[in-house]
């Protein structure tokens, strides 16, 4: 009888479930085929080694990607499609499940929406009194290192949606998620403005590349 380690990714998935696959095996499952003189498992290992992680691979641009010998636009399109499919999945899941947000689900959703942005985006999730998602909105867009946020616009949108609570989020395209002094100041302003309208700010998450910071987890909200 074959052990799990000796099985090809598809057979291993059928026997032990998708969660049993390593990063290399999961990547090989999506790639399906190798390149001339290189089987798909070898190709998957080389790609992960070259980019350092699945994150590094899925966020690479085409110039970085084609530095791999024998790999072209078809494989690049496959992997970009995977990343976009994941982003859309979290988007739909957020709206269709209509469930209470967990910290993990919130973080995963925000990372899927903001992690690859090349400029700062300020996104707000609007919730009802039971903390179920009403909608989310990219209210402000900025530059590589700054986004101007207007608390009154957040309040106006929350009132229009009859929201009882909000979760704030923005990304740092530099990759480092550590909040700046400006991030802390604008969070304080938004919290104070929301308090006047009896709207709770549950958290503010800063999304970096493969990392995040939660104001709530740090006790800042």
Automatic annotation (TrEMBL):
Superkingdom of the organism of origin: Bacteria
SUPFAM superfamilies referenced in this protein's UniProt entry, alphabetically: RuvA domain 2-like
UniProt xrefs under InterPro entries: MPN (IPR037518), RadC_JAB (IPR025657), RuvA_2-like (IPR010994), UPF0758 (IPR001405), UPF0758_CS (IPR020891), UPF0758_N (IPR046778), UPF0758_YicR (IPR022820)
Record has Phosphoprotein as a keyword: no
Swiss-Prot/TrEMBL keywords: Hydrolase, Metal-binding, Metalloprotease, Protease, Zinc
PANTHER family for the chain: DNA REPAIR PROTEIN RADC, UPF0758 PROTEIN YEES-RELATED
NCBIfam families noted in UniProt: PRK00024.1, radc
Recorded family membership: Belongs to the UPF0758 family. YicR subfamily.
Name used for this protein in its record: UPF0758 protein Q0A17_15550
Organism in which the protein naturally occurs: Citrobacter enshiensis
Gene designation per UniProt: radC
């Amino acid at each position: 009888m074959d052990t799990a380690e000796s099985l090809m990714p598809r057979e291993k998935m059928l026997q032990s479930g998708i969660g049993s696959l390593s990063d290399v095996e999961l990547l090989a499952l999506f790639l399906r085929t190798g390149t001339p003189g290189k089987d798909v498992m070898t190709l998957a290992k080389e790609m992960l080694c070259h980019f350092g992680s699945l994150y590094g691979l899925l966020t690479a641009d085409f110039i970085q990607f084609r530095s791999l010998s024998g790999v072209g636009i078809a494989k690049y399109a496959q992997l970009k499609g995977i990343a976009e499919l994941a982003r859309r999945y979290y988007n739909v899941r957020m709206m269709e499940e209509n469930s209470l947000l967990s910290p993990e689900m919130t973080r995963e959703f925000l990372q899927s929406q903001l992690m690859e942005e090349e400029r700062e985006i300020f996104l707000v999730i609007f919730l009802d009194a039971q903390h179920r998602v009403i909608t989310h909105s990219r209210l402000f867009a900025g530059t590589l290192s700054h986004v101007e946020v207007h608390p009154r616009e957040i309040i106006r949108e929350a009132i229009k949606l009859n929201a009882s609570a909000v979760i704030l989020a923005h990304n740092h395209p530099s990759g480092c998620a550590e909040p700046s002094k400006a991030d802390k100041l604008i969070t304080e302003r938004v919290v104070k403005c929301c308090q006047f309208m009896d709207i709770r700010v549950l958290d503010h998450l800063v999304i970096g590349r493969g990392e995040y910071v939660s104001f709530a987890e740090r006790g800042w909200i």
